[in-house]
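Repro:
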Amino acid sequence: MINSKEIIIIIYVEDQKRSKDFYTALLDNAPSLDVEGMTEIPFNETTRLGLLPGDGIVAILDGNVDNPNQNTAYPRCELYLYVDSPEKYYERALSLGARGISEVKPRNWGDNTAYCSDFDGNIIAFAKRKSEK
C-alpha cells in the first residue's frame, strides 16, 4: 500500500485555461494552484486533480515521450467520481461542453453510473453506490 498523505491525479490537456474553467465549474471548487504549465483543483483535503498541458509533459521528460495532444481519438484516462447525484453532475458536465456517452444507469459492479468525456477525450464517470439512498 502506498503511504502517501497527498495524491495528485494528473491528466494531460491541450488547453489549460479551457480545462481549468471546465473542471473548476464542474467540481465547484477553485484551483489551489494555477500557474503556467499546471493547474491543481482539490477534490478534498488530500487529493487534487492536476491539469498539465501535453507540451508540458514532453518538456518535463526531455522529449522522451510523445505529445499526448497528438492523438485524442482514444480515451487517455478515466476519472471515476463518487457523488451524491450522478444525474446532476452528468447534466452539469454536458452544459459545460462535455460529450455525453452514457446516462446514469445501474452497472453490474454495484453502482449507478453516468459517463461523459471532456474536451481532451478523458472519460469522467459520476457514480453512486446502488445501496446508498
